[in-house]
Description:
Layout: E1 6-15, E2 23-33, E3 38-42, H1 49-56, E4 64-75, E5 78-81, H2 90-95, E6 100-103, H3 107-110, H4 117-129, H5 133-146, H6 152-155, H7 165-177, E7 183-187, H8 195-212, E8 215-220, H9 223-229, E9 232-237, E10 240-246, H10 247-252, H11 257-264, E11 314-317, E12 320-322, H12 328-332
Parallel strand pairs: 3-8, 3-9, 6-7, 7-8
Antiparallel strand pairs: 1-2, 1-4, 4-5, 9-10, 10-12, 11-12
Helix pairs in contact: 4-5, 5-7, 7-8
The structure holds adenosine-5'-diphosphate (ADP), iron/sulfur cluster and magnesium ion.
Amino acid sequence: MNAPVFQMRNVSIDLDSPKTPARRIANGIDLELHRGKTLALVGESGCGKSVTALSAMNLLSAPLRISEGSILLETEAGREDIARLNPSGSQMRAIRGRRIAMIFQDPMTALDPVYTVGDQITESLCQHLGLSRKDAWKRAVELLRLVGIPAPEQRARNYPFQLSGGMRQRVMIAIAIACSPSVLIADEPTTALDVTVQAQILELLRGLGEDLGMATLLITHDLGVVAENADEVIVMYRGYVVEKAGVDALFDNPAHPYTQGLMASLPPADGERIELTPIPGQVPAITEDIVGCPFASRCPHVMPKCGETMPALGAISSEQSVACWLYPAAAEARP
Ligand SMILES: Nc1ncnc2c1ncn2[C@@H]1O[C@H](COP(=O)(O)OP(=O)(O)O)[C@@H](O)[C@H]1O
Ligand code: SF4
Ligand SMILES: [Mg+2]
């Protein structure tokens, strides 16, 4: 595979509040994004997916901060560690939206209700690419067409409230891709939409990623979405990457007991009605002190060692790694 356009290396995120002891919310996250490919980040609610996404954009604000690691992005100046840039400084603002863009779960809160959607796309084009207002408007209409909005000339003059949820999410995608970023981060982009629209939006994202050569980080709590839309997958649990694999390897052979639990609670693709087995218990809160594997309280295979030390991510094949004491690779990978 080609060199990654984006790389998080050993990134940890801390919650530093003057009122409470510091808490580690994400631990040593490593991930790589490649042009035209989609990496899915999957895990239940509260596992740390959104904070990881925000850190990738260098968008964390107090009490959250990147406490270690680097975030390498290809920019005009070459490979840059954006974790070192001031999150609200001019350098970071020039990169965000231009080189790396994000689509959020709820377009209604991300779009400005008092501007037309055409104006909102135009603004990004004028700011980052220095286009004239007339050229930017023309390009905004083209972008609306590209994301599948019918009658884009008229729609560009609409305000967000005049559009359906699916159309608003298409507008968000148009804004995100307006300046041809090399990296697109989509945090649960379809959770608020009904199933049919959800599938259409995900298909649109995948097609655009491939056609425009963008590297996509797709965040979801739904393994069904992963199966349909990802090339590679990272499974996250309570701030740790617990499994990393190519999508086929993951579905053929889910290795981590947490991944196996997620699979068991996934309805079969053929629509057959079977009894699903949800994983008992919950993701431990960030305020809970944990020694050893964070999945131990829910794991059917837990053994004494699991409560003592967190296993490291070890390779069990050329395209699959797992952090679990059931695998000798975890012991060999210990730093
Ligand atoms: N601003 C914040 N202040 C305090 N805790 C936070 C903040 N943002 C996230 N968290 C905590 O960090 C953990 C991970 O959150 P998040 O990344 O939103 O999870 P996910 O996106 O996987 O559902 C959760 O326990 C959440 O409560
Ligand atoms: S390390 Fe132990 S508790 Fe954690 S997933 Fe593996 S077997 Fe289960
Ligand atoms: Mg989230």
